[in-house]
Amino acid sequence: MVLIIILGILFFLALGTILYFVSVYNGLIVISRNIDKAWANIDVLLKQRYDEIPKLLKVCEGYMKYERETLEKITFARTACLQARTVGESAQAENQLSGALKTLFAVAENYPDLKANQNFMQLQQRVSYLESQIADRREFYNDSVNVYNIRIAQIPDMWVASMLKMAPKEFFKIAEEERKDVDIKFNFPK
Amino acid sequence: MIENIPTSTIRGLAIGLAEIVGDAKKDKPLKGPFSNADCVFYSYTVERYEQSGRSSKWVTIAKGDSSYCPFLLNDGTGEIMVFPKGAETFLSLDYEFGTGWEKPLPSNLVEFMNRNSIAYRDLFGTHKLRFKEYHIYPGDKAYILGTARNVSSHMNDHREKLRERLVKLKKDPKGMAEIDLNKDGNISPEEWDLAVAKIETEILEEELKSSEVTTSSPEIIIAKGEAEKIFILSDYSQKDLIGKLLWQSILGIYGGAALAMVMLLNVAYHLVILRF
Fold first, then answer.
1. Fewer beta carbons within 10 Å, N or C terminal of chain A?
2. What ipTM was assigned to the predicted interfaces of this complex?
3. Membrane-spanning regions, if any (chain A) (predicted)?
4. Segments forming the whole domain that contains residue B54
């Protein structure tokens, strides 16, 4: 009788432990996939923004002939974004592009004809809205990475994570320059 | 699951399982069926006290909610329509009334019982009943874990469609007779609200169906997903909700384990008896 009870207890303990580790494993897989999905969701918006930039530049070119440097910076940053392969590279290129766009919109304030242009207004609104959406999704991505990084550093998840060789993931960091106000220089001929 | 999914902003919401928190609102608030309070969502239960021999218990004899009626959620970055059909709700109790000694059934509850053809009295008097109502009030912070889904651009015409169908209904004597539930020849505000909610559901379901074939100008709503079965609607904060669910799961796990042990001991006891 006692033997049966002990065996029963051991059986339930073993079963409980196995089920617990299976649930930890499944949980980590779900969180990891959520990060991939969060990144893919940022990527969708980034691509939409890349598509809008050439149109924006086309509209600006006619009015801002003295701001060639600003427009070139955007083209250069956009190309860098398209060539980025890792989260780190993307983050760096994105920060450059966001900074260049901020400068463009700030400089555009000094061109009343451009500001009054219907196409420019629409494109500016669209790009600004996409920028806000990207910022929101970047925050969501970082929150997802944070949840994952904390989980794989905690016991007992870290045992399962080390068995699966799960490494901490990279945050989508905002560069220091992004936090600063845009430094505007107008290039009007003297 | 709740802890593992970060909260999304409505502006940055992507298709799929998402957690959002925002202020609930509705252009034309609903009325709580017992309290008559303005709300964007309600659920209710009617329970009857039943005694059989030495045991007694409360038995649910009627329950319902406004899951057929969508509402809006605003988190400061944007607004989204929530279609609560199929949601598991965790709401705080807002109204409770029990019949008893010198506590007869108020007229609005009598009317509710009659309208829904629920027996509330017998030869010996009124049954011992308990009425409970749970709300999300306009402006309440609501927590939602559900699926963000596309609907067609026709969603923008949602109100226009609703208006057109209501105008059509008003001109249709047969349709008007159908919504006169108590057949007294008059459409009460409650009967009209029910008809509006029913039409709104039909329109939304049509829009949800049409989203499967169209991809132009997508609009997003929160509803129960087809792949993701989880859909939670609550007026508790995320922290309180996790605490509440944690206790439920602890009770479930340890209760289940204890029950299994008792069953095992019972089997072992009978085996020993049979052997000797």
1. C
2. 0.70
3. 6-31
4. 1-152+218-259
